[in-house]
Amino acid sequence: MLVLLPPSETKAPGGDGDPLDLAALSWPELTDVRAGLVEALVELAGDLPAARAALGLSPTQDDEVARNAELLGAPTMPALARYTGVLYDALDVRSLTRAQRARADRRLAVGSALFGVVRATDRIPAYRLSAGSALPGRPTLRALWRPTLGPLLAAVDELVVDLRSSAYAALAPVPGAVTLDVLCERPDGTRVVVSHSNKAHKGRVARLLATTTGEPGDVVRLRALLRRAGFHVEHPGGTALTLVVPADWATR
């Protein structure tokens, strides 16, 4: 089972690993695109107004541009430690046992606008690039990634659970992947999407899938696994699942 997580805008600073080695990252088929994007970000960082515009940043976020300028020399850390925020707080890899962390390292991967996809253990620097960013003089990220990342993910020979946000899934859709929508159910029975709840509950689902000793091979078995763990999961059809949470869980 391969569980694809969305990245986060926020990244943990620092690190204790050697500088970025693109050749050492998982899926070396993506190296050329990765290298081109790293080069583009470093070059863009030399033009502060252009970098702000391309990356959607304000002057108060110039430290993000500075990070990009140092991409090739900055220290690295494992991807699961680099990404932060609501989903990663709920995933809480630091609390896993050694055996659970080993399973998580095998199963979890993170979609990335800069690297395409990285394994949990891949060492990366802090950076700023989002799926919707438009780099001057370059094709869209979707146009860059789809020809290489799409076939790579489509060829994964195991169940893929795609928890990426729509913007990152659009960079390279995975045919046949199980997807998960999170809906909050109000007392009157109506259902709405809540961003915070979506991220937190996907983090909890990711934690279960990363650590379970089970190995579901299809959407039906995956749903059964989630339901046994106490999740209210519906299967509207195909490979789509819907996780329904009560309104009073919206901020949990």
From TrEMBL:
Coiled coil: none
UniProt name for this protein: Peroxide stress protein YaaA
GO BP of this protein: response to hydroperoxide
PROSITE patterns in UniProt: PPASE
Organism per entry: Geodermatophilus obscurus (strain ATCC 25078 / DSM 43160 / JCM 3152 / CCUG 61914 / KCC A-0152 / KCTC 9177 / NBRC 13315 / NRRL B-3577 / G-20)
Pfam families: H2O2_YaaD (PF03883)
Superkingdom of origin organism: Bacteria
Residue ranges crossing the lipid bilayer per the database entry: none
GO cellular component: cytosol
